[in-house]
Amino acid sequence: MKRIALVLFLAVPLFADVKQLVDEGIRLYDAGRYDEAIVKLQAALAEDPSSDLAAYELGLTYAAKGDNAECIALLEPRVKAKKNEYRSAMYGILGNCHDNGGDPDRAIATYRRGLKVDRNDTQLLYNLSVTLAGRGELDEARKLLKQELALQPRHPSGHYLLGQVFEAQNFRVPAALAYLRFLSLEPAGERAKDAATRALALLGAGVEVKDAQNVTINVDPKPRKEEGDYGTVELMLSIAGAAQLLPEEAAKSEFERKRAQVASSLSMIAEVPNKGRDHTAKQVIPFFRQMYDRKLLDAYAGIALLSLKLPGTEEWRRASQAEIDRFVAFMQESK
After folding, report:
1. pTM, whole model, 2 decimals?
2. pLDDT score, position 9
3. Which of 153, 101, 170, 163 is nearest to 129 (CA)?
């Protein structure tokens, strides 16, 4: 009996169950306690060196802590194994560690290797686009972001970056709508404030004010059309921007004037027949047309500008809670 008992004792693992260790590591990671998470995840790998999940979570934690060398040393051999369900995700982390470690060329090469494993991995598409955009390679970044957003339309960062790329490449309407789509998903914070400021500038572009009686609208006679032909829409947006300068608008708060500009701009876009095949026509305008059909554009326009804290914001918020709630319900059910 004693011998049997000894055998049973030796059969008990030296460490707790691998899944339990990984779960504890994830919990510590989520709490920002990276050093403690690393200890747990290293223990899980020591118990089961073949655990790709433990390796993935450990690499993620190294990356979050900024231990880029440890991240690379751990994941580089792992991504070579074809029987690895976390392979494309590991490529994403590995590329980030190269990028954060100051080697964008290897980061780009790593992301590309990952996309050969899974061409629709949204994290790889986005990460590669970020690095390419940072190097000024905007055409490819734009292409990748459109692919990523077609797969993951509720990704705020993708819309925000695509807005920046569109803006940098002088695609006025696609840029404005990308920022506004971002604001439907992330209406608060510093990024929201930046996006709202940029969107308003794009919507009102071309309006030149000399005095109250002398407002000129200038429109680019040869706008870029690779992302759709929006020449007529640009003129309509400038007219909507000029309308807020009319004398009868002067009594309204700044918030109400800007809110009306956003709402009227989106209403005009929603009412124009949409036959384009570009990203904005297929992925973004239909989203705002749903709002138009549900009579939510007025509420959305106010929500999109909340981060700017313009005079009149709080008065509108207090008076519009029911409409705000309706918009929130719409966003919860929309894709």
Report:
1. 0.88
2. 38
3. 163
